[in-house]
Each structure stands twice: as C-alpha cells, then as structure tokens.
Specification:
The protein is α/β, with parallel strands linked by helices and about 350 residues long. It has one domain (about 35-300): Spore Coat Polysaccharide Biosynthesis Protein SpsA, Chain A, CATH 3.90.550. Helix content is about 40%, strand content about 20%. Strands 3-2-1-4-10 form a five-stranded mixed beta sheet, sandwiched between helices. A five-stranded mixed beta sheet has the order 6-11-9-8-7. A two-stranded antiparallel sheet has the order 5-12. Helix 7 (about 190-200) packs across helix 8. The protein is globular and about 75 Å long.
C-alpha cells in the first residue's frame, strides 16, 4: 500500500491504550508480607536410583512444615530443575494456596545459586531455610525465634544439636568468653537419640555414630535464661535477612560442596552461630526411616505408604550387610556422578 503505515487513523505509528489499568485507578493496598519467610530449595531430577523416594521425602517435609509451624509464615520454594512429576506436585500446592512463592528454575543453579536468588527475594525480615528433606516438629519456629531474639547479634540458628568444626564458630566462642552473663559448659549434653538420628541420616553406621558421639563434645551456652549450643548447620537454619544480605552473593562454582562459604562469611563478620539444645527439626535423607514414617503417620502428615514386596525386603536386608553395602555404594557413586554430570550440563 505504497509503504503507508497500517496503524489506525489519527494514531500513525503510536501505541494504543483503551482505558486505564483498573489496579492503577482503584489502588488496592498490598497485603503486608509475614515477618518470616520459609525458604525450601529442592532438586529431584528424576525418580529412580538415589532419588527414587525423594518426592515422598519432599511431601513429608512440606506436610510437617504446614502442620507443625504455629507461627505465621510465607513459603517460598525454589525448585532447581526437578522432573515433571515433582513440579506438578509443587504447582498443585501453589494453586491450593499452600506455597506463596514458587520459583521453577530452568536449570540447576546449585545451592549457592538458589540461596543468592531466594534469600534476596524473600519478603520477610527473617529467613528460615531448609533443604527439602527436613522434618519439622511442633514448635520448631517458635524455639528458633526465642534464641534469635534473646542472644545478641545472631547470624544463624539450627533446629537440632550439631557439632560442626569450631573454626566456623570462633566469633561465637569469643563473644561467650568475654561476656560475664554467659555460662559456658563443655561436655556431652545432647541426647544420644538426637545425635543418632542425625548421624544415621548422613549415612553413618550405628557403630560410627556411637564412636563419634563419645569422642566429640558440645559447647553449651546459657544466656538470660535461654540455652543454646555453639555451632550451626547449613542444611537448615533461621537467620535475619539483613545478615544474609551482608554475605551474599556466594560464588557459584559447583552445585553442592561450597555451602561452607556461608558459614565462613557469617562467622567472619562476628555473628553468632548457634543451634537448639534438642531436636526440633530432623534431617530425613533420601529414604525416610521407619521412625520418621511412624511419627509422620501419627501426626497425619505422611503420604500414603507404599507396599513393599517380600523379595524387596529381603534385598534391602541383604544390602545392609557391610561386605555388600560398601562395594555397591562405591559402584553406585561412580555411576551417579557420571549421569549427574550429564543431567547438570
């Protein structure tokens, strides 16, 4: 048509808008964010091998969070490129209003990458982080907040007794030693059952768990009537958002293995790293233990149990023997690393 514009008469090359955006006209108030944002980072690339029961673990974790958190919170889930079945589950929970913020990453950016995004995006003043394989007990968040609000300059609080290297809590020890109102005690104070549950979830044998329990020690602090142990874990913690903003961004070199950098930075800035003196959260691992399943069932937070054949139960029992377990795990780890690299590239 002779090069003439196809725009409407009188508009000639300009954009159009019919009416006003109703939100701009009405100006409805935005709902204020809750003080606490719970951040869960999830990575389940497929439902076989190591990840065979990971969707079940995720379901148990989130159901325990919804059932056992007495303090109001918003939930932000960062999914690190999980498989379709996992994402459908998360989308269903989001549509149901149980997940307030859902981030579906196209690729796996690792734990540090997820932290860099989610901790900055969290609208709350307090961030409660957890891996997707954490079980929450009743009153867990209230117990964290009590420590956070009582001790000064707290950087991280973990919800179960842990014994990380003391070098990552040197600022905590220095504060305790120079503060007259703090009572410092050293010894084996945490319950064996709490230590055992955490050690077994990390792959320790009963014998290894007992040996390390007897060889290690807890450092207990009492301050203004509140008790806490020295040290925190990065698999689960509650922290002020301002502290996390100080130490971010973290380097994104590997998907896992660099989480200690968070511990180092929090400690280097003089913040306290503490944990609760008894178990308020529990690391599930990639397979829920009979104890976790029983407890979840009693609290009504467990998905429908799967029936296991007699033959499979026999195979599982055989695989628990050390002379079978060690070579199988060695071979499995090699195969897993091979396929994991292909999925992550």
């Amino acid at each position: 048509m002779g090069g003439r514009s196809a725009s409407a008469p009188g508009v000639r090359g300009k954009g159009m808008r019919l009416g006003q955006n109703p939100v701009k006209v009405a100006r409805p108030p935005l709902p204020p964010p809750r003080e606490v944002t719970v951040v869960v980072v999830n990575f389940i690339p497929y439902l076989s091998g190591y990840f065979e029961r990971s969707l079940e673990v995720l379901q148990i974790s989130l159901e325990s969070l919804w059932a056992n958190t007495g303090v109001p919170f918003d939930l932000l889930v960062f999914d690190n490129a999980s498989c379709a079945e996992v994402r459908e589950y998360l989308l269903a929970q989001h549509r149901a209003g149980r997940i307030q913020y859902l981030v579906l990453s196209e690729k796996n950016v690792g734990i540090p990458g997820a932290w860099n995004f989610a901790f900055q995006a969290a609208p709350g003043k307090i961030v409660a982080f957890a891996d997707y394989d954490i079980y929450f007990y009743p009153g867990w968040l209230k117990a964290h907040l009590e420590v956070l609000q009582t001790f000064p300059k707290v950087g991280m609080v973990t919800g179960t007794p842990v014994r990380p290297p003391v070098e990552f809590s040197s600022s905590t020890l220095a504060w305790a030693e120079r503060t007259p109102d703090v009572v410092v005690e050293r010894g084996a104070f945490q319950a064996w059952e709490d230590y055992r549950a955490h050690a077994l979830s990390l792959g320790f044998s009963e014998e290894e768990a007992m040996r390390t329990y007897r060889e290690g020690e807890d450092i207990r602090l009492r301050y203004q009537g509140v008790e806490a142990f020295v040290g925190a874990g990065h698999f689960q913690f509650v922290a002020p958002k301002t502290v996390l903003q100080e130490v971010l961004p973290l380097p994104m070199k590997r998907a896992m293995g660099d989480e200690r950098e968070l511990d180092r930075r929090v400690n280097a800035r003089g913040y306290l790293r503490l944990c609760l003196p008894r178990r308020y959260v529990e690391h599930i691992g990639n397979v829920p233990s009979p104890e976790i399943l029983a407890r979840a069932g009693r609290q009504g937070v467990s998905p429908a149990p799967k029936q296991t054949s007699r033959f499979k139960r026999w195979l599982y029992a055989l695989a628990d023997f050390p002379w079978v377990r060690r070579p199988l795990l060695f071979l499995y780890n090699r195969v897993f690393q091979l396929y994991y690299r292909r999925v992550s590239e």
